[in-house]
Amino acid sequence: MTQINIGISKKGRKAITEALKVLLADTYTLYLQTHNFHWNVTGPRFRELHLMFEEQYNELWLAVDDIAERIRTLDEPAPGTYKAFAKLTNIKDTEGYPSAEEMIDLLTVGNEQVVKTCRKVLKVASEEDDESTLSLASDRMGVHEKAAWMLRALNK
Q1: For the chain, which domains are there?
Q2: How far apart, in Å, are the Cα atoms of 156 and each of 39, 44, 101, 126, 147?
């Protein structure tokens, strides 16, 4: 097999993929949290939140694949275990079964964290002129900013 030659140095690809691995871990952790809350939400807003959380976890599930495939495209292995994600993620695990309002707050914070992680990816990708990763991170950032806004609006 020929060596990768896409105009980004090996060192540059490594820096980008290290940032993307954190984005992957944050996204997967948020996916798990959102799916958990979808299953376990209760209360008078059950249907509304159950459906909203389902929309969000389905979107996150697709994003996980896009991020992992970008890492592979840059010729690095993508993490794929709970242990690896737990080590990399910035999102705290949830204990027990929070109230619906707490779920909304936790998912808001989780989405905002992914936005911050995207900003770090953007910085590294920009330094390496990696337009594909810039596009991916920018798109992800927009999705999570909108999700956080919608979640915040529920608890006002």
Answers
A1: 10-154 (1.20.1260.10)
A2: 24, 16, 10, 36, 15
